[in-house]
Amino acid sequence: MPLFQPFAHYLAYMATDQQTFRDLRSLYGGLLVPGTIAAWQRQGTGGFVLSLSATEASPPYVIDPRFPLFQQKLPLVKQSHTALAEIFGDPKLVQTSTRPEADQFPSERLKALAEHWVAFNKNYGQTSIDSFDKYAKRLGEETPVAADAAAPEAILAPYFVADGINDPWWERSKRLFDETLLAADGMPCLRVIAAEDVRALDELLPDIPDKDVVVWVSGLDEYEALADDLSSYRHCLDAARARGQRMFALYGGFFSVLQASVGLDGAAHGVGFSEHRQWRELPKSGAAPARFYMRRWHRHVPQDFAQILWTRDRSLCECTCPHCNGQSPNEMTYHDLMKHSVWCRQEEINEWAMQASTVAATALAQEFEKSSEALSTLMLPPGVQGKGLKLIEHLPRWAKALG
Amino acid sequence: MTPARELLVRRHVDGLGLAETGEASLLPYLMRWLIATGRIRARTHVAFEVPWLGRRVDLALLTGRGTTSAFELKLGRIQRVLEQASYNDLSFHRSWVVVGNHPKSDGLEWARHLGLGLIVVRPPAVTLLLRPILRTPQHSIRRRVQAAITTRAVPLS
């Protein structure tokens, strides 16, 4: 399964990124389609994803059920929430005034939810294909035909976020997977282990027999997390690998790429953002902000901050990619910035995923030293130097976590 | 004041209201000064809170000849606004800092070193301390800045 062919690079789909997805077909392995978008912009998303799947490159795709949405109170209901609940055939999933409890999901309800989700996945090529021709034409020279549209690579079973094996949501989550497997009738299914934190993931992973699993630690922000938490995440993945499990991270940035050395087989991220996610719904969402990806620091930075560095010491943010094409950060258009970021991640995978962790740790520590020195000697305006030093704080933490 | 300038005051200042606190309290005095010194003319586009690279520029001007200026206002310490103004300096022809107090020597020195303009507004007095260096932004950036200003600007009569 492509999701577990190291190091699998999947992009989370958003409608604003279609140009990037079309132009960079050789630079990512597959698509992760959020269930909310698949449900709300059903024909547009279907037309785009299915026409892409019908091309010669035929990138595989999976649909994330985003089920933890229905594990929380949703006081500000979005149309995508209700559309997704309808896909599940259960409009009462959207709770606006009270927080749902695990016991509100008895076996019969879980069975029905799983059956609806399986039907949606199995019939995706028939029920979400009205706009196929419109999107197929946009793909340019190789106009795909609807008959070649592919089914999802696997069904990602609906899941709940759990705090450990004694959390009642975990038992429901496991049952959702079993029901999905039953209803799928032979179509590949994958379990998503969604954990409140790293400790919970370490408890949950050994509790299931699956060889292939998708993992998500809620809110694990690689840039802000403590070295100890990152180190625990790494040990947890390593222990799962020792048990013979293969893992794909639902969200991940560059630090996740470095976890290839302990058995992480792939990760997904949004174009230009979404390298981590809190399971509790954000009141606001939208397209990625226009930011510049700094290859040396393995992170996005504000565009005008990068421009200042560019004017003072070009080596800090210079890039050889075809999307930068010699432009300064401020000159780049939104889509240049997005394509540059995806290109960089693929380059990082090519360069770093197979590195020994000690080599990677040394390189990160050295980069921190070099960048600290450069930032301290560049005569940057007040505030800019401090911002720069803050933007590289993750490097020694990552180095330490790699041990 | 000439009738033409009175018209500009009516267009750009009268609608500002009378903010008593915050940076906005500096604006009416600054605007009158910009008009009085010929920096805002009949064909000048004037825009507040202009979205630019994920931030908002407090005040931006686009002259009839296509020259752009950015103003960042701050009542308190100048240090905090120097960062924003130095970012603007990369995209606008002129970048200004407008403060409510005479800055300390290190702030003044930084503004001079960075080539920023510096105006002190202590109502009703407005004092020009430093003139900004005229930059030549890259063509594509200039075009985008101009578009951002005209989109947001008070319509020219």
* Portion in helices of chain A: 40-55%
Order of helices and strands of chain A: EHEHHEHHHHEEHEHEHEHEEEHHHHH
User: Could you give the count of β-strands of chain A?
Assistant: 11
Radius of gyration of chain A: 21 Å
On the 0 to 100 scale, the average pLDDT of chain A is 93
Unreliable parts of chain A = none
Assembly context of the chains = heterodimer
General shape of chain B: globular
Distance between the termini of chain B: 20 Å
- What structural class do helix, strand and pairing data of chain B support? alpha/beta
Number of helices of chain B: 5
Which regions of chain B contain 5 or more consecutive residues with pLDDT less than 50?
none
Descriptive account of the structure:
The complex is a heterodimer of chains A (403) and B (157). Helix content of chain A is 43%, strand content 12%. In chain A, the strands form 2 sheets. In chain A, strands 1, 2, 3, 4, 5, 6, 7, 8 and 9 form a 9-stranded parallel beta sheet that branches. In chain A, helix 5 packs across helix 8 and helix 10 packs parallel to helix 16. The longest helix of chain A is centred in the last third of the chain and has 21 residues. The mean pLDDT of chain A is 93. Chain B has 157 residues and is α/β, with parallel strands linked by helices. The model of chain B has no long low-confidence stretch (mean pLDDT 92). Chain B has 5 helices and 6 strands, in the order H-H-E-E-E-H-E-H-E-E-H. The interface between A and B is medium-sized, with 19 and 17 residues.
List the helices and strands and how they pair.
The complex is a heterodimer of chains A (403) and B (157).
Chain A: E1 8-12, H1 18-23, E2 30-34, H2 35-40, H3 42-53, E3 61-64, H4 79-87, H5 107-122, H6 124-127, H7 132-138, E4 155-156, E5 161-162, H8 168-184, E6 189-195, H9 198-204, E7 212-217, H10 227-242, E8 246-249, H11 254-258, E9 264-270, E10 291-294, E11 299-302, H12 303-312, H13 334-352, H14 357-377, H15 384-391, H16 394-402
Parallel strand pairs in A: 1-2, 1-9, 2-3, 4-6, 5-6, 6-7, 7-8, 8-9
Antiparallel strand pairs in A: 10-11
Helix pairs in contact in A: 3-7, 5-8, 9-10, 10-16, 14-16
Chain B: H1 3-12, H2 27-36, E1 45-52, E2 55-62, E3 68-74, H3 79-88, E4 94-99, H4 105-114, E5 117-122, E6 125-130, H5 139-152
Parallel strand pairs in B: 3-4, 4-5
Antiparallel strand pairs in B: 1-2, 2-3, 5-6
Helix pairs in contact in B: 1-2
